[in-house]
């Protein structure tokens, strides 16, 4: 669930809210049952042991170390391109770099430096405006509504744009996706405007169940796609940009200029390959179970008489969604840590202030640790959490 330069579930230093990072992670690690896990609740030794155990099944360890992007890196690029149905792919150390390079390449090829994108997208919220500051590009916003722009909104933009960038899913409003028909229509609208389409698909891996098509079918709508290897696949870091072979060759040149041509990247790439093997087949089950968990949470909050709450979206589009509650973040975090310490059960991770005073929001990620949770389990944990919220004032 962690992103670069945004709120995470444990990557940042302790804040002013009372629950230290060390205490929170210790409570999570000590839990026997975890609904929404954290990728940061592991020691270096544990992560290294996991990689050591999974590596032999992920790649031939008798191969030579990679040197500036060859060997195992090139093999990951080829596998990613094949999964996405694209001609080629380039590995990048970060998604922020991959996105900058993609938009820069398309601006040069279209002759238009205007990018149409959502103001809540990762490009705008969590990359320090890199595409404008470093790339010299200019944004236009088809909509400010908390959803993907519609075809009509794209057609009605009052100035030309070279690239339409769509974040799938759009994280900030609750990991939301359009319908398949809406997505195909908005892509067609961009083509009518002589624009190319770039998918910010950091979490594209888990979108196919919502659309009811294959992963390559989703990617085929776009001219280029960025995917992350750590957000959904539990890798260490890293990303890939996929698209036409000529564009990817240009992207690799810009990757070098941006400092992304790293001498050796085999640990990160090994973790990505292992994550593909382990997590990709499981993602549909995570998405399906997220619907069970979200419904159970809503029913439990309603039965407990919580004065206001929201599960957003009510039926999750992916395996991630938001929970909003009418209590301060520090009260919810203290109650959650106490629940974990006293019962060895972790329900939620970090809480953050909502835009409306008095409301707090958390992001729920339903992954392997949540699959054993029944609706009854969710309801019992909610009751236990709310008891501690009440006790904490």
Q: What shape does the CA trace take?
A: globular
> Biggest β-sheet, characterized?
7 strands, mixed
The rounded distance between the terminal residues' Cα atoms is: 29 Å
Give the CATH architecture of the largest domain.
3-Layer(aba) Sandwich
What is the helical fraction, as a range of percent? 40-55%
What is the CATH fold-level name of the largest domain? Aspartate Aminotransferase, domain 2
InterPro entries: ArAA_b-elim_lyase/Thr_aldolase, PyrdxlP-dep_Trfase, PyrdxlP-dep_Trfase_major, PyrdxlP-dep_Trfase_small
GO cellular component, one term: cytosol
Region (Disordered): 1-21
Protein name: Threonine aldolase
Give a brief outline of the structure.
One of its GO terms (biological process) is glycine biosynthetic process. The two termini are 29 Å apart.
Word description of this protein:
One of its GO terms (biological process) is glycine biosynthetic process. InterPro entries: ArAA_b-elim_lyase/Thr_aldolase, PyrdxlP-dep_Trfase, PyrdxlP-dep_Trfase_major, PyrdxlP-dep_Trfase_small. Pfam families: Beta_elim_lyase. Keywords: Pyridoxal phosphate. Strand 5 (163-167), helix 8 (180-192) and strand 6 (196-200) form a beta-alpha-beta unit. The chain contains 15 helices and 13 strands. Helix content is 43%, strand content 13%. Strands 2-8-7-6-5-3-4 form a 7-stranded mixed β-sheet, sandwiched between helices. Strands 9-10-13-12 form a 4-stranded antiparallel β-sheet, covered by helices on one side. Helix 1 runs parallel beside helix 14 (329-343), helix 2 crosses helix 12 (266-279) and helix 14 packs across helix 15. The relative contact order is 0.15. The longest helix has 21 residues, at 283-303. It has helices at 21-29, 44-58, 72-84, 95-110, 122-125, 130-133, 151-155, 180-192, 208-211, 215-219, 245-257, 266-279, 283-303, 329-343, 375-391, and strands spanning 33-34, 88-92, 114-116, 138-140, 163-167, 196-200, 224-228, 239-243, 310-312, 320-325, 345-346, 352-353, 360-365. It is of the alpha/beta class and 393 residues long. It has 2 domains: 21-41 and 281-391, Aspartate Aminotransferase, domain 1 (Alpha-Beta Complex), CATH 3.90.1150; 66-263, Type I PLP-dependent aspartate aminotransferase-like (Major domain) (Aspartate Aminotransferase, domain 2, 3-Layer(aba) Sandwich). It is globular, with a radius of gyration of 21 Å.
